[in-house]
């Protein structure tokens, strides 16, 4: 078993080496330049995200599609993932995680744009799109689309299900005394109730759940930062300094230099906001939108809320709490989840409550969002008849996830993230001219209707 774990860890280090980091951050920078710094439109994008567009074609509202995407991105990566980044890469990883989000806004915009532009409609009226359709219809590379869909299908069981349910079971067991097997069964039951209803059922639940859970968590973080206010500026200085050089800080915090901080900051940043991974555009393709740019802007707000706001606040909460409470012995911490728990436990009453309920809500919403992503990818590979078996297997994974080793699951999820991101990033880069053309066409006329018809494609048999 130790040899298998060692092989998995070595593979993770390989796929998340410099080539992947350069590809990911390079794409973020290229898309920022190609779109003319689309981040400057974030205010307009936020306004659009809460504006209904009933005249447009699609299955769910723009906000419904965004809520589904946010459900999958605002998950344990925002809480435990940030703790894991600090544990493995030092406080400096928080800066790289945040910068991945800032520049990742452009990549999320770009991948969502091509997802909507190249989306298709099934004979029963369901909208489908994503990197696989962009690769097939935009670049005539269906084989690469199949590779993306294959890895994304498997990734849904890891990043979308196992890691999330495992995290729920851990916090419920440690803080509420609920046996893990009961937690797994309960999550599996409630997941089945929602996902068998399809995208409309999932988006309906997410529209109600996401705003509440995000507001609850952000307010809680603000309260904790208020309590730790004396260490806020020292924490910011520590994060910036240790992002570029090795060293130590108050509370036993240490940084291993730019490579470690960059590695784990970027990896956790992608895990958290999924910019460049190709997942969120699958939900964007189902939205009611007049043109690709309009929905692409809405989708880009997901990265803003997820990483630029929520992950940054989590990082500051963790670093300030550790610096405030020297009783936290970093040397005896076994993983990022334990570090996160210890940090939040230092705040009486409110800290543990925010951690427990934040993880439960964030993780469960992610389970729902990724179930939809997995469905679309499975249908692309194997046809509509594969949907019911996939849903059954997804629910079973949720039931058994609490007994899986968390660190091993996180590592496998990291690997699958990279493997599905590569085909998606290839699609984005090769379709840059299309992204630029569509942006120029609609960015100053967001109410314009696209003159392109969505083709009907039957995926019953593949």
From TrEMBL:
Location within or outside the cell: Cell membrane
Keywords, in A-Z order: Cell membrane, Membrane, Symport, Transmembrane, Transmembrane helix, Transport
Transmembrane segments: 16-38, 143-166, 178-197, 209-229, 249-267, 304-323, 349-372, 392-412, 418-436
Domain of life: Bacteria
Membrane topology value: Multi-pass membrane protein
Family named by the database record: Belongs to the alanine or glycine:cation symporter (AGCS) (TC 2.A.25) family.
NCBIfam families attached to this UniProt entry: agcS (TIGR00835)
Protein name, entry field: Sodium:alanine symporter family protein
Organism this protein belongs to: Hominiventricola aquisgranensis
